[in-house]
Design a protein that fits this description.
Number of strands: 0
Strand content: under 5%
Radius of gyration: 24 Å
Order of helices and strands: HHHHHHHHHHHHHHHHH
């Protein structure tokens, strides 16, 4: 018996594919004759990727800082990719939901442990000098991370605690945007005026964020969870995955980020000030803002003690 591939079968399947798209199969097959073979570096765009690390100073460890944050943004992109699959799934099941949440949590686990790359691998003295060239930029301005928040929970859970009672589903998105929890970190707490950090951030992202908020208003992770049959909403593994994701993002990862900031900003060579000028300790530490994506899945005691221990 011949072990030769059944080329006729493959060609028929290719023909069916392009016929269904009203395309000329012969053109595609002829294109294969002249196409170059793919290489790793072309597929990954290695040269382009490695050209994006551009330092503002001559301090060697600034390269660590830049590359590390770019890796973070790539992971945020992967997280948003996974969330979108839950948001857009028309036949969502508890198992699919759980699998995606655990994927996302593993990305955040990687982000959490990776802070040691900076804490142990970046010279404090160098950082204390080159960081001033970053003013008024800040990790606060990660647009992708804000989208992760919008896509994870009901908007009310991202509103500053002081204003939650005044905002509901009928509130204009523009008004809700002005009362998000992180707005406080970009304003002078005495005058209420916006910092350059926040002005720049809003100029770049505000309209994009509001559109994104509208899109995910009814298909964020919590909304999709509530659409599941009641039996699935009680699925032990899914609820565990929901809680794990919430805790991982809003306590474990945030505190790892906070502790890295303490190491550099409050260390012997630090000046205590964030590059963006925010009250970073109260903004970052979870016990103050109590950022919780799925509060209905936590007991009142757990909410009251949110961020107190890890």
């Amino acid at each position: 018996m011949s072990n030769q591939p059944d080329y006729n079968h493959l060609l028929n399947k290719i023909q069916q594919k392009y016929d269904a798209e009203s395309e000329d199969t012969e053109n595609y097959l002829e294109g294969l004759l002249y196409s170059n073979s793919i290489t790793y570096w072309d597929y990954i765009h290695t040269d382009a990727l490695l050209s994006l690390q551009i330092q503002r100073t001559t301090f060697p460890d600034e390269m660590v800082f830049i590359t590390y944050h770019q890796i973070n943004e790539l992971l945020f992109k992967m997280i948003l990719w996974e969330i979108s699959q839950v948001a857009e799934n028309e036949q969502l099941t508890a198992k699919f939901f759980e699998d995606k949440l655990m994927r996302i949590s593993r990305y955040f686990d990687m982000l959490t442990t990776s802070f040691n790359i900076m804490r142990e691998g970046m010279d404090v003295e160098q950082y204390s000098k080159f960081r001033h060239t970053l003013t008024p930029a800040s990790g606060f301005q990660s647009g992708q991370y804000r989208k992760i928040e919008f896509a994870s929970t009901e908007l009310i859970n991202l509103i500053d605690n002081r204003f939650r009672k005044t905002i509901n589903r009928n509130t204009p998105f523009e008004h809700a945007f002005d009362h998000l929890y992180w707005q406080a970190a970009g304003k002078d707490y005495k005058t209420g005026s916006k910092s350059k950090l926040l002005i720049n951030f809003e100029k770049r992202y505000k309209e994009e964020f509001i559109t994104f908020m509208k899109i995910y208003n009814t298909k964020n992770l919590w909304s999709r969870f509530k659409e599941l049959p009641e039996e699935d909403q009680k699925n032990e593994n899914l609820v565990k995955a929901m809680r794990h994701y919430d805790y991982t993002v809003n306590i474990t990862w945030v505190l790892a980020h906070y502790n890295a900031a303490v190491h550099y900003i409050l260390g012997p060579d630090g000046d205590g000030e964030a590059t963006g000028g925010s009250d970073w300790q109260k903004y970052m530490h979870p016990k103050y803002q109590k950022r919780i994506f799925f509060p209905e899945l936590w007991s009142q005691q757990e909410i009251d003690n949110w961020g107190e221990t890890i």
